[in-house]
Structures are given as structure tokens and as C-alpha cells.
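Progress against Task 2.4 (sequence-to-structure conversion) is shown through the following example record, which the project officer requested during the mid-term review.
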Amino acid sequence: MAETRPPDPLGTPLAKAPGVSAALAKALEDGFGYRTARDLIEHYPRRYLTRGELTDLAHAKKGAEVTLVGTVRNLAKKMPRRNLRILEVRVADDSGAWVCTWFNQPWHAQKLTVGTVAAFSGKLAWKAGRLGMANPGYEVLREGDDPEGFANEVIPVYPASKEVSSGRLRRAVGALLDRFGDVPDFVPEPLRRAHKLPDRAAALEAIHRPADRKEANRARDRLVYDELFVLQVGLALRRRAQEAGQHGQPLQADGDLTKRLLASLPFQPTGAQSRVMSEIAADLSRSKPMHRLLQGEVGSGKTLVALWALLCAVQSGMQGAIMAPTEVLADQHGINLRGLLEPLGEGGGLFGGPRVEVLTAGITGAARQRILEGVAAGEVDLLVGTHALLSEGVEFRRLGAIVVDEQHRFGVHQRVKLREKGDSPHVLIMTATPIPRTLALTLYGDLDVSTLDELPPGRTPIATHVVADATLRERAYQRVREEVAAGHQAYVVCALKDESDKVEVRSAKAEAERLRAEVFPDLRVGLVYGDMPAREKEATMDRFRAGEVDVLVSTTVIEVGVDVPNATVMLIEDADRFGLSQLHQLRGRVGRGQAPGLCVLFADPLTDEGRARMDAIARTNDGFELANEDLRIRGEGTVFDARQSGLSDLKLARLIDDFDWVQRARKDAFALVDADPELSDPGHRRLRQEVLARLGDGRAEWLARG
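C-alpha cells generated for the chain above:
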């Protein structure tokens, strides 16, 4: 339905907005990507300053921020060298004199003429034998003006650029507030009242021009709520759009296959696995298709849970599918599923286990045709594959449940295309990257979330060491030799496949050659990378699993899903170039058997962020703690781009610090959409307009995504 919206004053192009010159509009677009009045009015201060105590010179503390009122006695202009102009203004009160100095800001001389009375605010310090202030703020005083108000004023400090200073931004935002500040409120009044929040116009005024810090904090709360509430309404609308017209087939959770699977296990499922299976069972029992995210720590047993969910479909007379992002991971899933199902007997018989097939781009000819015919006839119960599952020739007889593994590596349209292979099948999305709960409620707010936060007994923590000293590299290589001599295997992970002239990092191909020739000439060194020929890659991985390769050099193609219990040590080159979650996934490839694991990170980070990542990964094996730390280090950034294209990034909200507001906004949004799924209530008209404006031109496609 076409949405009729009145003109939005905040949509005014910056070049036509009051207080914004053409040059400033261009600088704002070039430096910040801002084009409209809304963009600039939502450029919020990052902190606030107060000018300092109002005092006279005799009682002012040296080195402190103070405000002094004085009369200009004289001015001096100097140019000690080219491109450096200094303005010195001598000011005095009844107790003494000081000098205010500005660099390359000659225009202050036009306001601070001799005899002018002004309040000056800045840090008072001794320099070159005299008291002075460098680049102070000031306000010229007229008769009757109160300098106390100037001294106590709260000054917003904005994220600035080389071309646009914080002061220039402050003046431009002030002009926009004077012209466009009376904005309509889109949050329903009952919700504002429930959370004791000011209206939006007052909040915008207070965040930019607060009377005090308390008022600024109240304004921030309101604007943080706005960001999160609009986001959650969008997610709730998408959830409704996903479910509209979908009638999933209820699946039997407590059946023969699931019972036999659990009874055949040589271990007891963890409490977390049992809890998650109960959550999935509740979803599968309904006629609405399941949309659930399953996240879990490395080694927490997601594969068992996924297989259990797929068997619910099989024992209900339907088929299941797993889509993985790489052939290596798809092959590993095939091995794991067949291993878990082996005690149930050969697939296809009346009392046998389900028939499992793996379909990747590397499977061609008669083998591929045999699999496709089995899938179409319903003889293949579980189909594991890569993007190959999406091809036109893959036709399921009756697809009842889908598992999408490492879903962040797939585009939304790919997940939708797989879902269209069945008639509203149940969908379980899996990720081995732990996600902070606060992020899961936003990034995946349209999904129900299950978490495996418990490791099976017997898993030993992986020892992690960061090595910056080149002299310690030889000791790491010696440790690899010791592990191989003990009958174990090792990984060496590189960031790149080939050498590059642009970055000085070790490449997998070059490193494999070097290790074979110089470091481990007596060991069996293999190589895998993402785009190597499928058969060659599969053959190398099979040899590594069989213990015929001692040291596997790889790119991040082995990041997830690869399960070789005999591998005990991993060396990661240029580790500071990897993200925290990626490092955590990589090291999770070792220590999967009875022997303890060791991960050595070769890194000499040059940035504070790089050092913080290395400190964190060495400090803890807890993936959820690392996920929180990663969010703190990197910030939200453009965290929503991949999933919510069209939704602006969060400008004020910080998901960890504002978790309470995340929960409140989510509860309010989903309750509101449940009560008014089309936002057709007159009281929700402005909210609907705001959500559509935030979603951009692709709003209809975004709302329909799965």
C-alpha cells in the first residue's frame, strides 16, 4: 500500500537549510555523508564541557579550568613563521592581568577591541614567565549581562573533521534547532509516560543545548529509546510479514528416530542441549513455521541439536536440509551426521537410519544425478550441501525443516530461496560465533534465540599465547614437532591465499612452501584454501583427517565446522589482522579430542585496538565474554548493514551499556505490533512514517526478508 506522507522539514537539503552555507554543506557531505537537516540535527555531541569556576585572577588555581572576567588592554599580532599567525590579547581585572593567545584565528581581534569587557574560559597556566590561556572560549559582556551564566554553561563537543570544527557544528546545529526544532513526536504518549521520557522536540533541544548534564542525560535516554524502538518495530513488522500466510506443518518431536538417536549416544546431552531441544520442540508443534537462531560456543554440540531437529521432520514423513557456506564445512557435516546416525543402521530400511547425502559443486555427473533423483523421490531424508542446494535441479519431495549454518555468510535472498524449496518449512539458523544477548535482540530481533552456553564434560581449555618476539618463533615450531612426535597434528593459518604487494603478511601458499623447504622438511605439510579445486581440497582434508598430513597450512576456510580430534596445536600468522570472534573460531579447531590444545598467535599489533584484541583472546576461552569484548572494542559501527540495509546505524545507543533500554524497546515494539500489525491506528501514523523513513526506499523488500 502506498504511503502518503506530508513533507518532512528535516528532509530539507543542507545547502538550503538555515545557517548552513554551500561550502559547509559540501564539507558535511564529504566528511560525514550528511545531506539533509535530519542528518545534521542527529549529529549528537560525544561529550560536554563546563567552562570552569567563575573567579578573579588572584584566587584562580593555576592549571585549572576557570572563567575570568576582564577588560581588554591591548592586542598584538605576530607571524613568527609562514602559515603561523599568533594573536595575543592582554586582559586585566582588578587583581592582575593575563594573556589570551590564539593561533591562526585572527578574526577574534574584530570582537576583542581595546576596552571590551568579556568573560574568558580556559585553562590558566604559566608560560614564558606570564599567566595565560591558550585558545580560550569567551563571551563579550554587555551592561547587565551575568557572567555566572556563561561560566556554568554546558558546552557540547561534537565529533568533528579537519574541515568542520566542533564549534562550527555547534552553531550550525543551533540554527537548525531554531528553524526545525519543533519536530512531531512518533513515540505514542502512553509509552513516553510509562518510561518518564520527555517529548522528542525537548530531547533534541536538550541534547544539543542542555541547561545542565542531568538534562542532557534525560535527553540521551529519550533518543536512545527512539533509536531502539524504531529498530524493534521494524523487526516486529518483519516477523509479522514472515508469518503472514505461512502455515507450517507441525512436526513430531517425540518420535522413534529422535528417541533412538538420544538412546544411542555414548554420552548424556548437556543441560543446555536438552533445554534448547525443548524450545525447538515447542516451535515445531505449532502450525506456524519456526524461525529460530541457535547460537553456541565452540564445541557446545550444535550439530547434535540440528540433527535432532531435522529428524523431527523425517519421522513426520518429511525431509530435512542443511546449507553450509563452504564445501569443507558441508563435507564435515556429512561425516558428523553419518557418524551420529550410524548406530541407527543403514539408511533406507524400515528400521534403518535416515539416508544422508552431500551435494556440493564438486559433485557432478552420475553421482549428482543419483542424489537429485533420490531427493525428488523422497528417498534422501537429509541433504547436506553448499549453495548447490539452491540450483534449479534440486527438487525436494516434501521439505519440512531447514538448518542454515554460519548464516552470516549467506545473503538473505539465498536463505529465502532455500525456504522456497518447501512449503513453509521450519527454519533453524545456526552460528558458531557467540553473540551478546543485547546484540541478538537487535541484530536478530525478528528471530527467537536459543543459546548453548554449556560445554560437554571433558573438554579442556585451550592454552593461548601471543608471540611478538621473533626469537620465540623457533620455540613454537619446536612445539609443533613435539606434538607431531607424540602422534598429533597441527594447523598453520594465514590471512591470505597469495602474496600481496599491498600488505606485508604471510600467504598460505608461500608459507606452505617455506615450511616444507626450511622448517619441517621431514614432516608432511598440506595446503588448503577457499577457491582451490574442490576435489583437491577434499582430498587434502581427507588425508588430514586420516592422519596422513602432519601440518595443514590453511586460510580461514577451516574456521568453522572442521573437526579433527587429533589436531592439538595451531599457529596463526598476523593474528592482529583477524577479528576476535574469528580467532576464537579458529582456535576452536584444536583440543577437540582427549589431548589439550595450544594456540600460538604471531602478532605485533601497532594499534590500541589490535593490542586490546590480543589481550582479550589470550585472557579467556569464553566465547560470549569475547563477543562482549569485541563489541566494546569495535563499537556497533555498521553492525546492521548486512541484515538491515536501509536502517541507519545507531548514533547514540550502545548495546551493552543500554541493554535495559534494548529490552524495554523490544517489549514495547512487539506488543504494539501485535495489537496493531499494520500500524493503522491514527495514534501510530507518525510512528509508521518514521519506520518507513528509516527503512528507506527498500522498505517493502526489507520487511519481507527472512
